[in-house]
Write a structure and sequence with these properties.
Layout lengths: L8 E4 L2 E4 L3 H6 L43
Length: 70
């Protein structure tokens, strides 16, 4: 069963952990002591490129030649 849902990372002692919703555990028939596989998907901010170059004052210079332009 593959189900994607969001959980918050919380501090547990000196480690970090996540709390899984009870309803999701029941759907997957997961109990105490069972092993599960976890995949982490990083949700980064969407940088579409708008306004990113305004802080650069030096022009872009290609450091290697990728292809020939004629």
């Amino acid at each position: 069963m593959t189900d994607i849902f969001k959980v918050k990372v919380r501090k547990i002692g000196t480690s970090l952990g996540v709390l899984l919703p009870q309803e999701k555990l029941q759907q997957a028939e997961v109990g105490i002591g069972d092993e599960v596989e976890v995949a982490l998907l990083s949700h980064q901010k969407d940088f579409s490129g708008f306004g990113l170059a305004k802080r650069f004052t030096t022009p872009f210079i290609r450091d290697k030649k990728v292809r020939n332009f004629t």
